[in-house]
Write a structure and sequence with these properties.
The chain has 4 helices and 2 strands; from the N terminus they run ααββαα. It has helices spanning 3-16, 21-24, 53-72, 89-99; strands at residues 27-32, 45-50. The protein is of the alpha+beta class. It has a two-stranded antiparallel sheet. Keywords: Nucleotidyltransferase, RNA-directed DNA polymerase, Transferase. GO terms for molecular function: RNA-directed DNA polymerase activity. This is RNA-directed DNA polymerase from mobile element jockey.
Length: 100
């Protein structure tokens, strides 16, 4: 791929504080719920939206930066165990056992 090009595009988006409009557009695909649908009926269709891969990568970059900053600055409660790095369900159970 072209990592240098991605870096330029993502840094430009951050510097300009923008999210390109083309990354916001989704392509809607209709998928039949049942394989044997002869007459299309909206009740028998499920829709999925396909988003831009670049947009999803950029969103993940922003999410990781924000989460890292919040974690680094001790924004989260010390009893927060879900979705935290280096914490697991066993840690929550140990804490619960200490309290009880």
């Amino acid at each position: 791929m072209y990592p240098d090009l991605f870096l330029i595009v993502f840094n430009s988006c951050l510097r300009l504080k923008t999210f390109p409009r083309c990354w916001k557009k989704a392509r809607i695909i209709l998928i039949p719920k049942v394989n044997d649908v002869r007459v299309p009926n909206l009740d028998n269709l499920r829709c999925i939206s396909l988003l831009s891969t670049l947009g999803k990568c950029f969103e993940r970059l922003i999410i990781n930066r924000v989460a890292w900053r919040l974690y680094k600055d001790n924004y989260f409660n010390k009893n927060q165990f879900g979705f935290m790095p280096q914490k697991c369900t066993e840690d929550a159970l140990v804490k619960l056992n200490e309290i009880v």
